[in-house]
Amino acid sequence: MKNIKAGLVGLVAAAGLTAPAHAEFNLQGKTVQIIVAGGVGGGVDLFTRLLLTFLPNHLPGKPTMVVANMPGGGGLQGVQNLYNIGNKDGTSLGVTPAGPIKEPLMGNSKVNYDLRKFNWVGSLTAEDTVCLVWHTSTVKTIEDAMKREVPLSATGAASNSTLGPLLLNDLLGTKFKPISGYDGGTSMLAVERGEVDGRCTTMSTVRTAHPNWISGKLINVLFAVSNIDDDPDFKSVPQVRNLLKNDADRAAFEFFGAADEIQDPFMLPPGTDPEVVAGYRKAFDATMADPAYRAEAARRSQRLVPLSGDKVAAIIDQMYATPPAVIERVKRATALAGKN
Predict the structure, then answer these.
(1) Contact, 211 vs 301, CB < 8 A?
(2) Distance of alpha carbon 221 from alpha carbon 132, whole angstroms
(3) Are residues 167 and 287 in the same domain?
(4) Cα angle at 179 between 178 and 184, to 5 degrees?
(5) Of 219, 236, 258, which residue constitutes the final position of a domain?
(6) CB 268 within 8 A of CB 93
(7) How confident is the model at residue 7 (pLDDT cuts 50, 70, 90)?
(8) Which helix (H) or strand (E) holds 197?
């Protein structure tokens, strides 16, 4: 048998033939659909659209990129679409807010995706969430929010804007009432119109979509859910982590906030060719170092705190390793999600 194989190899070599080479990853002439699991005008949408101005320059073949917004269910619709029917050749890419990352472990909805099977490309920023109210609201302090019901605009029942306030009610004794069903853009308009008292959202979203809210002193930030110590406009705002009373509360809060470290993460569907994944990761990292992109992000007040695809995957694995008792605590606290 060895002699036969050797003879065949010799014939191939003599004929000048070689085994067919594996085609290199190249998107020239192709269109890539980016599924944005959020509404038009929301934070994840605005960050994504700016990134897509620069990302194609670092991808082989400089493809055309188009956005498909799928905000349903707080982003679950978009994530499930990418997971189940996304193309595996590099022409399907997705980005999500934190809600769909938390949902599989929180268990308030049945989801047909496994976060560990996505191919994570990288994330753009870290969440800088605050709970704010409009300047005309009678709620001025945390203590006020403990005394009366405070309607807040929210996106889907599984979104951070719904689950976060419910967890805070359990941890701090506030009386937030998240009203889900808005998308990223209309949830902000609801605050301006007085349909609700306020919203728990990111300062990055406010600065990007409504910078006049800050310059015009149109909002009152009750407290910071994420660490915003480096925010020059809100240095004196109370931090939730400093208001927690015991280790059990802190463990629940840290689990819930783990996904906030990977805000606006991009992913490729399961089964994507490893060469495609490597190509996207290389392009993402190069874009994060692109001076033109960083300058334009700064001009638009988009705070960049990028993480590599490997680091995003590690945080996902860490979330899945959380003790069940901690997860159950968070699930009980947010059990009202979807019942508004």
Answers:
(1) yes
(2) 4
(3) no
(4) 95
(5) 258
(6) yes
(7) very low
(8) none
Q: How far is CA 309 from the centre of its chain?
A: 13
Whole-angstrom Cα Rg for the chain: 23
Same domain as 211, residue 90 = no
- The tokens for 312 are 């995003």
Collapsing DSSP to helix, strand or coil, 110 comes out as: coil
CB 265 within 8 A of CB 311: no
- The answer to whether 125 and 65 have CB atoms below 8 angstroms apart is no
Looking at residue 62, which CATH number applies to its domain?
3.40.190.150
d(CA 311, CA 122): 8
Over residues 168-176, the mean pLDDT reads: 97
Residues 246-264 have pLDDT tens digits of: 999 999 999 988 888 898 9
Amino acid symbol at 183:
D
State how far the Cα of 32 lies from the Cα of 49, in Å rounded to an integer: 13
Range of the domain at 78: 31-126+262-321
DSSP at 56: G
**CA 336 – CA 237 distance, rounded (Å):** 28
Residues 6+ apart with CB under 8 A from 337: 108, 157, 158, 162, 163, 166, 180
